[in-house]
Structure to design on (105 residues):
């Protein structure tokens, strides 16, 4: 199974979690207070990360792919970073970056 992944920068995690939870109709799968949140719906993997100076900008795009053998990052001809990863690989990256993160299973 593949889900489209989009990662954006936001100014305020709490406000953004409230807004995107309403828009996506589902609570986040992972939240790191004041730093990061992740949603997994049937069609999208959306992550937000606090970066006040770049709020509203694209961080990267990619694919969550259950068959991905490794976490791969590439840059396209337009300079956009694309990631390709499994849910398990993403969970490890979150746990490595924020050991206090709460991940729903």
């Amino acid at each position: 199974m593949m889900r489209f992944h989009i990662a954006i920068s936001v100014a305020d995690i709490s406000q953004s979690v409230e807004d995107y939870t309403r828009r996506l109709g589902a609570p986040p799968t992972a939240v790191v207070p004041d730093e990061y949140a992740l949603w997994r719906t049937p069609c999208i993997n959306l992550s937000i990360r606090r970066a006040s100076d770049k709020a509203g900008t694209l961080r990267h795009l990619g694919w969550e792919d259950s068959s991905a053998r490794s976490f791969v990052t590439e840059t396209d001809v337009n300079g956009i970073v694309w990631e390709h990863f499994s849910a398990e690989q993403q969970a490890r990256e979150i746990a490595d970056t924020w050991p206090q993160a709460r991940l729903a299973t």
Summary: The beta strands are 2-10, 30-32, 36-40, 44-50, 58-65, 72-75, 81-85, 102-103. The first strand starts at residue 2 and ends at 10. The chain has two helices and eight strands.
